[in-house]
Amino acid sequence: DQQVKQNSPSLSVQEGRISILNCDYTNSMFDYFLWYKKYPAEGPTFLISISSIKDKNEDGRFTVFLNKSAKHLSLHIVPSQPGDSAVYFCAASPDSNYQLIWGAGTKLIIKP
Amino acid sequence: GAGVSQSPRYKVAKRGQDVALRCDPISGHVSLFWYQQALGQGPEFLTYFQNEAQLDKSGLPSDRFFAERPEGSVSTLKIQRTQQEDSAVYLCASSLFGNSNQPQHFGDGTRLSIL
To answer: B100, B104, B105, B106: best mutation site toward chain A, by most A Cβ within 10 Å?
Structure first.
């Protein structure tokens, strides 16, 4: 069973608009969440993270929101730029230890 | 370079052959991770090292998979008697320490194809 789910395999957004990527999880023991970005033929690159004691974390154009009661997090990118086109992975960690449980990824396409 | 380096980038082997995949982590990083990523999926944890100690190998799919990091730096993932289901991208990551709020830095992976 998938403990971390990204239900949208792909998302297409106009350049300059907001991109919203969603992630759901089932394990209430998860207390740390991360977003990674991946270009083709490259490894994932860390983007932003959030601890379960917060409900929002912002870094430049990237904001992650956490709704613990709904076991849902989202990544907002605004404004979206062509270089944001990539696959975005949501990952979660139980008890702040080293193990990361990953979603299947969402491919974001930014249209000019 | 300053990042995680993996070699080879691509490896093709016949079923039954042994393969060895290498990972050079970022200098000074204590923790090293191996992941397996199937097409269209997220990475799946294989094993974790803290320095030279393999603290967790719970994700290794079978006893054909073996990983080592003898001097606490370079690591090798070995797969014996390869099977077609071993075809995947193998990712290595390192972090300064092992807790999750230290982001893991990934190499570009080794794409393994078993014929």
So the answer is: B100
